[in-house]
Amino acid sequence: MISVDTAVKIVTDVIETLPSKTVPFESALGLCLAKDVRSDINMPPFDRSAMDGYAVVAEDTAHTPVELVVIEDIAAGHMPTKKVLRGQASKIMTGAAVPEGADAVVKVEETEDLLPHNRVRILRTIDKGRNISKMGEDMKVGQIVLHKGMPIRSQEIGILATVGKSRVEVFSTPTVGIISTGTELVDVESKPAAAQIRNSNGYSLAAQARRLNADVELLGTVKDTKEEISSMMRKGLQKDILILSGGVSMGEYDLVGDVMKDINTHIYFEKVALRPGKPVIFGKKDKTFIFALPGNPVASFVTFELFIYPAVRKMMGFSTLHRTTLKASLEVEILVKRKRREYRPAFLRMQNNAWVVTPVEWHGSADLLSTTRANCLLIVREDAEKLSVGQLVDVVLLD
User: Most CB atoms within 10 A, among 12, 65, 176, 306?
Assistant: First the structure.
């Protein structure tokens, strides 16, 4: 049995990043850039007004109030046609090009229109350059604006549109197949008979993988026989990642590990000093990475977050592989019973400008309902004997 840290390192060391592909930029949300992106324009493309107001020669406002002649109205999307001279001003809208001769923009709130005489009264002194965004101050032609390895969020989509990058090179997303094992399993629409349960793990795992933008296929459920498990696994070997839930413990009908060995899977590890989720198997058959997870729903959930989450992230080219971990003050005492690292469903909140965390009521690794009240996993280290109220602990953010 190996430690959690060792198991995670094995996974992240052996997983490789998938090849890149080119996609329409509006389809790239949530993916990872595979190539630097350079700007093809200066931004702003001209000296631009940052305010609605009047473009002036700053020196004219040295003694205020002062009246200036308005020579032109400049709207966004229209280029100015007149040069501003001393004693003159051009009315200007936010985003419009600053006319030649003007070196500052006075906010409209600091002026008074003198109609119908085409004059404006400036009420305050303005410094040269005030309220003007200089050409190229945001980005310049040829500048790298987005770097390889960056996640593509809504703001990156906006930058891609700004620089005319209608197609963008990204790392591919992995294909993921999911198999649920267990003779006791029935589908969601079926009413379980005695000794049966609905297949929740398959759908929960699929949702976890889809949140990462993986291409997921639920391959189905299989009974606890070597023949059915082997047959379904062979179908799943066309995927980049194959996930099985159930059948990995020490019982008579826990056959997944035996089948993996029967088909000559290279096994990296079979047990991790972890609660919940000790009996987790990680291996590789041909080009497919196989994760066999415990059947208990919370154990399945936790082991996905610890091992499959970083595997998918690495395949997708991200440099940050793991969920965010932060420190929080514990609100209740915890007595440690087992010398395995524990990941307990917990609720994290802000109190008096500090993070505090409380474990949710949890009845063990079969109690999936508890996770619906949790927004993090509280880490109980394997060397701890007791966690005291107020002690700082590590928590893994889930949301």
Answer: 176
Single-letter residue type at 51: M
SS (H, E, C) 236-294: HCCCCEEEEECCCCCCCCCCHHHHHHHCCCEEEECCECEECCCCCEEEEECCEEEEEEC
Longest dimension (CA), the chain: 96
* Residue 97 DSSP label: B
pLDDT, mean of residues 204-230:
95
CA atoms within 13 A on the CB side of 200: 15
Which tokens is 110 given? 């600091």
> 322, 360, 321, 329: which is closest to 343 by C-alpha?
360
**Helix (H) and strand (E) counts for the chain?**
7, 28
Report which of 357, 287, 292, 295 is spatially closest to residue 326, judged by C-alpha positions: 357
Residue 136, SS3 per DSSP: coil
Question: If you write DSSP's letter for every residue of 16-84 in order, what string do you get?
Answer: -PPPEEEEEGGG-TT-BBSS-EE-SS-BSSS-EESSSEEEE-GGGGSSSSEEEEEEEEE-TTS---S--
Rounded mean pLDDT of the chain?
95
State the DSSP H helix or E strand holding residue 356, giving kind and residue range, or none if neither: strand 354-359
State pTM to two decimals.
0.88
Q: Write the pLDDT tens digit of every residue in 266-292.
A: 999 999 999 999 999 999 999 999 999
Identify the helix (H) or strand (E) that includes residue 215.
strand 215-222
Which tokens sit at 252? 């008579």
Select the more confidently predicted residue: 182 or 313: 313
Residue in 115, 131, 134, 136 with CA at minimum distance from that of residue 54: 131
